[in-house]
Automatic annotation (TrEMBL):
Keywords: Membrane
Compartment(s) where it occurs, according to its Swiss-Prot or TrEMBL record: Membrane
InterPro entries: CcmE, CcmE-like_sf, NA-bd_OB-fold
Lineage of the species this protein comes from: Archaea, Methanobacteriati, Methanobacteriota, Archaeoglobi, Archaeoglobales
Organism: Archaeoglobus fulgidus
Protein name (record): Cytochrome c maturation protein CcmE
Length: 109
């Protein structure tokens, strides 16, 4: 009887821990406005439009608010819709990835 009780407690504990870890690793898409309201955050995915680029720094906007992002790579397009992955320190988004949306349109002939 004690073994069954221990097994049940272990299973419930493991399941709860797995749910907590999964919850913290899920990174929902946010907007610049969401980030400003949230404060510091790690491993975020931010959707917005690049409105200006200056070297490795660019401005990302959702139409309401604009944030500054720093990226150690090349941003290919101005005025592009992107998903930026990185860490938000409350003032600057430190980007680890900038994923540009494809603007290819398929037209029937």
């Amino acid at each position: 009887m004690a073994d069954k009780k221990f097994s049940l407690i272990a299973l419930v504990s493991f399941t709860a821990l797995a749910i907590i870890v999964l919850y913290h690793n899920i990174s929902p898409y946010l907007t610049p406005s969401d980030l400003i309201a949230q404060g510091k955050a790690e491993n975020v995915q931010v959707v917005g439009k690049i409105v200006s680029v200056n070297g490795n720094t660019f401005q990302l906007s959702d139409g309401k608010n604009t944030i500054t992002a720093v990226y150690n790579g090349t941003v290919q397009r101005y005025d592009a819709e992107v998903v930026v992955v990185g860490n938000w320190d409350g003032k600057v988004l430190h980007a680890t990835k900038v994923l540009q949306k494809c603007h290819t349109e398929y037209k029937g002939g």
